[in-house]
Amino acid sequence: MSETRRVAIITGAARGIGAATAQRLAQDGHPVAVLDVDEAAVNATAEAVIAQGGQALAVTADVSDAAAVEAAVERVVDKLGAPSILVNNAGITRDNLLFKMSEDDWDAVLTVHLRGSFLMTRAAQRHMVDAGWGRIVNLSSTSALGNRGQANYSAAKAGMQGFTKSLALELGRFGITANCIAPGFISSEMTKATAKRLGVPWEKYEQDRVSAIPVLRAGQTEDIAHAVSFFVDERSGFISGQVLYVAGGPRG
After folding, report:
1. Least buried of 66, 102, 111, 165, by fewest C-beta within 10 Å?
2. Cα distance between residue 117 and residue 134, in whole Å
């Protein structure tokens, strides 16, 4: 458990990596604000954290809406205190081959990932600057290296890496670090939805992906949550602007 209580905001926390990260940071002793556009699911995440003895606040907001983001962060400040940890995890997929991809599918993915992370970071960083301490963790993906049928998602996830490095350069003088985690294949609702969209049984889809992973297993949401816990720890203050591939083997 962390020696210092830090208020954390986790976006996209209704399920999957976001929900697992909320659980882990709560176990570390941090009050967590779990934010998502899905009100029922994010309430369930908060309730699960509380049931395990943690402190949690559910916040419903669209991260791509500037006014909603400002209101959400102010609600966190009012209910939990000023945030000094931000995990930008919110994201969506709209997979398709380039010649089939609509402008709306392109815009939706870039908007949630990049605009959402920009708005959340802009709103939260002022509190970190005031405190002289902060941790920002952005979620990228191995898809940032390119992935067939994901031109929009790959572009967004590559953008998250450049965004992270820029934040590290700008905010370091205020005691704020910014780092990026790029998950590989993670067993989650999102990957199960991908298998379904492709018409491939989950067991076969998972087996095919695992066969190419050096450690010969699928990643779990907890694997990513553990990496987030490391980056937001007091002891990681000399690490900033880095991209950590959590993918069961070397990438990048």
Report:
1. 102
2. 16
- What CA–CA distance (Å, rounded) separates 235 from 167? 19
Q: Are 15 and 189 in contact (CB under 8 A)?
A: yes
pTM, full prediction: 0.97
CA-wise closest residue to 240 among 182, 183, 170: 170
Count CB neighbours of 10 within 10 A: 34
Distance CA 11, CA 83 (A): 13
Judge whether 247 and 183 are in contact, CB under 8 Å.
Answer: yes
Q: Is 153 part of the annotated catalytic residue set?
A: yes
Q: How many helices (H) and strands (E) does the chain have?
A: 9, 7
238-252 exposure pattern, b = at least 16 Cβ within 10 A, e = fewer = eebbbbbbbbbeeee
At 201-249, the pLDDT tens digits run: 999 999 999 999 999 999 999 999 999 999 999 999 999 999 999 999 9
pLDDT of residue 193: 87
Which residue of the set 18, 85, 152, 153 is catalytic? 153
Q: What is the pLDDT of residue 4?
A: 84
Question: What is d(CA 63, CA 43) in angstroms, rounded to the nearest whole number?
Answer: 17
Q: How far apart are the first and last CA of the chain?
A: 32
With tokens 């708005």, the residue in question is 119
CATH architecture of 7-184+221-244: 3-Layer(aba) Sandwich (3.40)
Q: What residue type is assigned to position 194 of the chain?
A: T
Regions of the chain with pLDDT less than 50: none
